[in-house]
Design goal:
Radius of gyration: 19 Å
Strand content: 15-25%
Oligomer: single chain
CATH architecture: 3-Layer(aba) Sandwich
Largest sheet: 6 strands, parallel
Shape: globular
Strand order of the largest sheet: 2-1-3-4-5-10
Structural class: alpha/beta
CATH topology: Rossmann fold
Number of domains: 1
Distance between the termini: 24 Å
CATH superfamily: NAD(P)-binding Rossmann-like Domain
């Protein structure tokens, strides 16, 4: 039995859909189970036969977190700690998702799990605080740092680009931030295989699709595939712009690509090129 926390978000809905397709037994909870309330979390877990707790709950409003850091900490740190304590209480494995924003983005090489963290945004600080709370509380955990997450459910860069490309004739996209997309469907498939293997190689892992690109590169292929599939209906001129031309309250890492050697050795994990996963996304576009 699996407890899926945050089952109504982009990643949580992908897990729920995959569990239902595979006939995997799970209990999904959303906002009705407040992860920031320790007593509520421990009470819910008590007596349950959960072997895994998958935490898809998070405060993810990156720019808003600059003015709501305390609120973000409640979810991204305290909520994670409460779930870790619940996992310890029932001897379950906690699977948690963190972010590339724990790094400052100043590296010239893809980040390894052993590289020093140095978040430059409130969101990054709260996610790192959650990692530290979790690792200080339990030993049986998998933390997957992921980047540029997108999928069929909820808003994300790909769905936003498709909408804007169907509305505008010209679009400027940042070209001086480098990283790698993470497709929810493939991530979920990997985690399910990990669970089926029953791996005990606990720890922190860096995960994303293969390939290092800019947001502009990502947008250009979204546009190409969107036109080929008929999902994008009009001609659009894409323009390369700098981060300075698109200012945001929260600073983004200029370089957030991961070294994925470690996760590539994890049981059940297979890494796909980002272009292949994006093509798969378009294949299922519109399906829920």
């Amino acid at each position: 039995m699996i407890w899926l926390v945050g089952c109504c978000g982009m990643l949580g809905r992908e897990f729920a859909a995959a569990f239902e397709r595979a006939g995997i037994s799970y209990t999904g909870t959303g906002s009705e189970t407040d992860v920031t309330d320790k007593n509520t979390v421990l009470s819910f877990a008590s007596g349950k036969n959960f072997k895994y707790i998958i935490n898809c709950s998070a405060y993810t409003a990156v720019d808003k977190a600059e003015s709501e850091e305390d609120k973000a900490l409640l979810i991204n740190r305290d909520g994670v700690l409460n779930l870790a304590l619940a996992a310890k209480q029932i001897d379950a494995v906690l699977i948690h998702f963190s972010t590339d924003y724990v790094f400052d983005g100043e590296s010239s090489e893809p980040y390894k799990e052993t590289d020093a963290t140095n978040p430059v945004s409130a969101y990054g600080r709260t996610k790192l605080a959650g990692e530290k709370a979790l690792t200080g509380a339990i030993d049986k955990y998998f933390i997957f740092r992921i980047s540029w997450l997108y999928g069929r459910f909820g808003g994300n860069f790909v769905s936003t680009m498709i909408r804007l490309m169907n509305e505008r004739g010209s679009l400027g996209v940042v070209d001086d931030q480098k990283g790698s997309p993470t497709y929810t469907k493939h991530l979920v498939e990997n985690v399910i295989r990990l669970i089926n293997f029953g791996s005990s190689k606990y720890g922190i892992y860096h995960y994303s699709d293969e390939g290092i690109i800019s947001w502009y590169d990502f947008a250009a292929v979204i546009y190409r595939i969107g036109r080929e599939t008929g999902i994008i209906h009009k001609d659009v001129r894409l323009r390369r712009i700098t981060s300075g031309e698109y200012p945001t309250p929260a600073k983004r890492p200029a370089m957030s690509a991961f070294n994925k050697d470690k996760v590539g050795r994890l049981e059940g994990f297979k890494l796909n090129r980002w272009e292949d996963n994006l093509s798969d996304y378009f294949k299922y576009y519109g399906e829920k």
